[in-house]
Amino acid sequence: MAIEGHPLNGKVALVTGGSRGIGAAITRKLASWGCTLCINYVEHERSANAIAAELQANGTRVSLHRADVSVPEDIEAMMKEIQDLYGDLHILVHNAGATKFSLLENASLNHWQFVQDTNSRSTWLLAQKALPLMRQRPGARYITITNSSPVKIIPRGGLFAVAKAGMEALTKYLSYELAPHGIVVNCVRPGLVKTGVFKVRPEFARGMQRELEISPWDRTTTAEDAGNVVAMLCLDEANWIVGEIITVDGGFHLWGARRGGKQDDQEE
């Protein structure tokens, strides 16, 4: 039963890659709206423990699930853990993702397979293995997190683009196939958010500066922006939004090709 200020009260939510960056923002938002949180992580145990302690201090029920979503057996084991703990799963947010930045001419078969397995194949397997826990649950949602690589050239980002394009296509097909089970499926595409990837791609900072130069909002996309939209899609009022890829970037995708700055629009 939803209560004021906690519209998702009683829902069990799993966020893959939910301990850092955009995933952590999604985790915090869903917790603040009343969800029980299942936080998935792979390597960053300290971050996972920290966010779990933070949420528990605020009264949220939390469990941590170490699983590599590129490994089918890990996905199965994680769903078994959730089954044993809660018996239900109402919200699944597939945020975990990884890539190998490489020119396609230099990429190896192992690189290709790793990026596909982590992003695209995992989208299918998570849906398949979570279905027994989510079928006909009130307010069931499956939300995937993509990025701009399928629609905008990112140098050395070809492997990521193909995998995320696969995730987006799977989102659309799953929205159709899971609808009879009462599960609403959508995809969220955040704009450029400052996360750990900036350590290996420092040029992304120049991209954020470019956004600031031309954006009328005088800010760039935050992880919290993405978390807010994910949470809104989980509301009962959003149950007729189905199979969509929702861009969350303050409109930058509309005016990002402009060469001038904000002052170009001012009348003389």
Write the layout of secondary structure elements.
Layout: E1 12-16, H1 21-32, E2 36-41, H2 45-57, E3 62-66, H3 72-85, E4 91-94, H4 109-134, E5 141-145, H5 158-177, E6 184-190, H6 203-214, H7 223-233, E7 245-248, H8 252-255
Parallel strand pairs: 1-2, 1-4, 2-3, 4-5, 5-6, 6-7
Helix pairs in contact: 1-7, 3-4, 4-5
Q: Total domains, how many?
A: 1
Reading side by side through the largest sheet, how are the strands ordered? Answer: 3-2-1-4-5-6-7
Describe the sheet with the most strands. Answer: 7 strands, parallel
Alpha carbon gap, first and last residue = 57 Å
- Spans of at least 5 consecutive residues whose pLDDT stays below 50 are none
Number of strands: 7
Fraction of residues in helix = 40-55%
Class computed from helices, strands and strand pairing: alpha/beta
Report the CATH architecture: 3-Layer(aba) Sandwich
- Name the CATH homologous superfamily: NAD(P)-binding Rossmann-like Domain
Q: Count up the helices.
A: 8
> What string gives the helices and strands in order?
EHEHEHEHEHEHHEH
